[in-house]
Amino acid sequence: MKDWAFTTTIEEMEAATNSLLETAQKVGADTWQQRVKNQTPHCGFGESGTCCRICSMGPCRITKKSPRGICGCDVHGIVGRNFLMFTAGGAATHSDHGREIMHTLYQTHEGGNYQVKDPEKLIRIAKEWGVETEGKDIYDLAHEMAEIGLLEYGKPFGTQRFLKRAPEHTQKLWADAGIEPRAIDREVSTAMHMTHMGCSSLPEALVRQALRAGLSDGWGGSMMGTEFSDVMFGTPKPIDTTANIGVMEKDNVNIVVHGHDPSLSEMIVYYANDPEMIAYAKSMGAKGITVSGVCCTSNEVAMRHGIPMAGNYLNQENVVLTGACEAIVVDVQCIFPALGPLSKCFHTKFITTSPIARIPDSEFIQFSAKTAGDNAKAIVKMAIENFKNRKPELVNIPNLKQNARVGYSVEAIVKVLDGVANSQVDEFGTTKPLLECVTSGVLRGAVAMVGCNNPKVRPDSAHIGLMKKMLENDIIVITTGCAAQAAAKAGLMDPVQAKEYCGAGLKRVCELAGIPPVLHMGSCVDISRMLILAAELSKDSGIPISQLPVVGCAPEWMSEKAVSIGNYVVATGIETFLGVDPYVKGSTEICELLTGEHGVKDWVEAKYVVDTDIDSLGDKMIECIEAKRAALGI
Ligand code: XCC
Ligand code: SF4
Predict the structure, then answer these.
(1) Is the pLDDT reported for residue 2 higher than 70?
(2) 73, 76, 193: residue to mutate for ligand 2 pocket, most atoms within 8 A of CB
(3) Would the CA dihedral through 495, 500, 506, 510 be positive or negative?
(4) Is 499 strand, coil or helix?
């Protein structure tokens, strides 16, 4: 058996965290580790999804003695409505991020804060959308595309433009199931309408709308977020970086970016590299400026600029606890309100920038596309000027750091693998070499590992444990979000060492293509990249997505966004494995629809598998991949 000697273990990461928790105790700071204890055990009604508080006759809780709410709603209606609301929250959030990107695109101009860095991609999408590109100024085209994209949120008729990217088989399933997403805002509103008191309580209808709202995110808002971020900030290409808390540098001004929208972090990165700012930092006694990140904002700038990743979701307090964080700058989503009081225990400036995420005990510098340059400069300056306020006796940056090669957009994956096989390249390239690896059995299949951390799972243990298991079994891992950062922190994206521990087939592919066995595809909106990859694999092979030996997995998920993701991944025909229950176990009917053989499986040819025993979850994934291979006769 392999020993994975070069990787950073969960125990090492925990020891580092424990040393930071000692500092927390010293300064009297509150941490999530403590708050979890205060909140345990969780409310059983909430956990099983059987509490309804959508009208003021309630809240109603379903028990044996009281099987219906006051309005007469049964447990299946209540659990189903909760599941749909959870999904709608996630779809709204991802999609609104996409909308912000489209507004930023609308503000691009020659020489401006934001520009078109990948004009070819813009033109390619414009052609796809039937927009005339010939002889048009690239910025005129950008603005036109921004407006059309924004209309995808509220257009009165028709369905999402990007649905056409899916294989015809998939499009037909969606049409037959009545789940083709219309305007994005409409799907969210419809969900909220359906879950209002006195509307839907039929489980099947609620689950169908959950798939539809999810699809409006994955093939709508998220896909626009990804594609047009690439247009403005560049389509990611393989790039080397580092990961884990040790990327913060003791002698430098440390700025940590956190959240999701790359519009902010791109600017911070730009000004932190400005010679004038570096000189200013030196004049303040620092050796330089280090920008690092947590959560998806970190993934965005890692993918495009090789900015190091300090950690993932449950590490966000750790970066402040180092005592060496001059500023933690946040935009939207996944930001602990705890950072307010926590930063007050240190010299750290906690800077919020979005009207969407206003948090007590932070300094608010409203960021907008028009003033972005000035905002970013002011923030970088503030961090530099804060360097002198550090308390040296509190500084502790645990020495954990791994190399990682990241930047695997679909374009990049197609390119590196095409290089290996030397096959014909059309405009977009082809996934045929990857398919050849899979059909010949050199690779058994692929797992898309995504999602968050959640204190219900020992942080990162499920991500890392499952990834190792997949690699040993010649299953390539593509990953985004906090799952990707878990891999990077552990060393599984190390381009030199990680392949040593893979099965022989996967190892050979890694050597030939010069890739790590775990491919970082970006942030959570970038799961749309995975949808495109799956669609291309299906179109290039003529095999429906649901029959490809590919599965999705979110072993440590926690957010509403993750449930929206789960719905669009399943609805795209990809079996999805969850390590945390989505508050549905209170209803046999909802469970049957989501995880049974005759619910969503009948409509979209895929279903959920939920298993909180991570080892057994991994076995089921491998079993599923092997069963798909057997069915294909490969
Ligand atoms: Fe948030 Fe995207 Fe989850 Fe990480 S993985 S905790 S949603 S940052 Ni999206
Ligand atoms: Fe109770 Fe029905 Fe109101 Fe829900 S909608 S709180 S079940 S009365």
Answers:
(1) no
(2) 73
(3) positive
(4) helix
